[in-house]
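sorry for the late reply, my laptop died twice this morning and i had to redo everyting from scratch. anyway the thing you sent over, i finally got around to it. pasting the sequence first so we're on the same page, its 335 residues, then the predicted structure underneath. double check i copied it right bc i was rushing
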Amino acid sequence: MNILAIESSCDETAAAVVRDRFEILSNVINTQIDIHKEYGGVVPEIASRKHIENISVVVDRAIIDAGLSKSDIDAVAVTYGPGLVGALLVGVSYAKAFAYALNKPLIPVHHIKGHISANYLENPQLKPPFICLVASGGHSHIVRVDSYCDYTALARTRDDAAGEAFDKVSRVLGFGYPGGPAIQKAAEQGNPYAIDFPRVNMGKDGFDFSFSGVKTAVLNYIHNAEQKGEKINKYDVAASFQEAVIDVLSRHLISCARANGIERLALAGGVAANVPLRERVSQLAKAEGMEFYFPRLELCTDNAAMIGCAAFAEFERGRLGDMSLNAMPNLSIED
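ok and here's the structure:
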């Protein structure tokens, strides 16, 4: 079965063809990073307009790269939430028209479920149940995956997502956008223990996240130094901030898995591309005797292959969409 998948939840216009759940025939991504760098972050209106300009080209290229024709497509999958509403609408509208024109099934896919499913593409041997940390610019969740279709959010951020905090701190330090890669690169030249930035503890059994405090602590540290006329080591700040975020993400993931009696872990989302985070979770998982899985870097950021993989489970459950499908920017993972 060949599924054409479309992803447009933020600033990547992406399309892919996935065969029989695990085989990626094509995976085309048109990124808008260079455009949004000028503004220090994603501008929703610009993102939506660029999706409109790019989506036809990206979808056509995905089909050509797969070595197929449109008649070879068996179903069309699309991200319908969560995300930026204007950006989502472009993908949803295009997918609906494409499926209608070909008289093919339409499969709505949750964006976070797509990120989690990227692990299956990299590690087909991975089977539920497992605990997955999903960390990106818009999301910070710990999710229990009980089957290919059944997900329960065990923890989430109370305020800023991890990736959002990376972006804001990177902008203030002058390292640019996107913040995740910029902070990681800067941190390589700094001391991660130079500054003891705060970690939020939600209590004995509280696995939720809060990154607003550490972000504010960084900003205050910089502003206080500026007011006193003191120079700061930006690389130490970046490294210490990254250490604080990684410490919280990794410890909460391990603790949550232990509390749920699950010994299989996974990472997903753009922040999952952070090498020190991968290494820290790997070390902790090994110490606990837990299995640990993660996707390759290109499957961590937004892409359509992960949406195609997730779509197979939805199709098998009979969870299909119709022409009334709409974008749902605040969609919960349990919906």
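The CA atoms of residues 39 and 196 lie 30 Å apart.
thats about all i looked at so far, will dig more tmrw
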